[in-house]
């Protein structure tokens, strides 16, 4: 028997790039506070650990916001991390029909990550929160 889901959203964020994570988290939390939505946060060391936490808590929350960043480097590691992480995250969300908004940035460089995470610019953390909140309201 599945556990009853709380009326909360869980934000799972990777803290591999602390400045990026802080920006994304700030955007998501600002939106949720403005909408008076209850939420909790769980920190992961890197993006590959996000699907583990999502799996662990999949039945405990009304929805999920995924925040993190994968930056291209000189090896195939970027592609491997991005594909495993995003594939597992969306597979879990779709197979379990859970509302999920994602701002797992996949960028060419740190400058792009700052641009996409900055709450005064693209603010993709806020956009992930909006998506999750809208999906919950459509259930």
Structural features, described:
This protein is of the alpha/beta class and 139 residues long. It has a single domain, classed as Rossmann fold, CATH 3.40.50.960. It has 5 helices and 4 strands; from the N terminus they run βαβαβαβαα. The chain has a 4-stranded parallel sheet, with helices on both faces. Strand 3, helix 3 and strand 4 form a beta-alpha-beta unit.
The overall pLDDT, averaged over residues, is: 93
Q: Strand-residue fraction? A: 15-25%
Instruction: State the CATH class.
Output: Alpha Beta
Terminal-residue CA separation: 21 Å
Helix/sheet category: alpha/beta
Shape: globular
The overall number of domains is: 1
Order of helices and strands: EHEHEHEHH
Query: What is the CATH H-level superfamily?
Result: Lumazine/riboflavin synthase
What composes the largest sheet? 4 strands, parallel
**CATH architecture type:** 3-Layer(aba) Sandwich
Helix content range: 40-55%
Radius of gyration: 14 Å
Summarize the structure.
With 139 residues, the chain is an alpha/beta fold. The protein has five helices and four strands; from the N terminus they run E-H-E-H-E-H-E-H-H.
Map the helices and strands:
Elements: E1 9-14, H1 18-34, E2 39-44, H2 50-57, E3 63-71, H3 77-96, E4 100-107, H4 110-117, H5 124-137
Parallel strand pairs: 1-2, 1-3, 3-4
Tag the structure with descriptive keywords.
alpha/beta; 139 residues; single chain; Rossmann fold
């Amino acid at each position: 028997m599945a556990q009853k889901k709380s009326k909360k959203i869980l934000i799972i964020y990777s803290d591999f790039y602390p400045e990026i994570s802080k920006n994304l988290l700030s955007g998501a939390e600002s939106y949720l506070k403005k909408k008076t939505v209850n939420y909790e946060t769980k920190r992961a060391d890197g993006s590959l650990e996000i699907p583990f936490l999502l799996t662990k808590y999949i039945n405990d929350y009304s929805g999920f916001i995924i925040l993190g960043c994968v930056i291209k480097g000189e090896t195939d590691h970027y592609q491997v991390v991005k594909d495993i992480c995003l594939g597992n995250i969306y597979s879990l969300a779709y197979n379990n029909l859970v509302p999920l908004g994602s701002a797992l940035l996949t960028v060419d460089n740190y400058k792009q990550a700052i641009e996409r995470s900055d709450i005064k610019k693209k603010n993709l953390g806020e956009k992930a929160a909006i998506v999750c909140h809208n999906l919950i309201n459509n259930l």
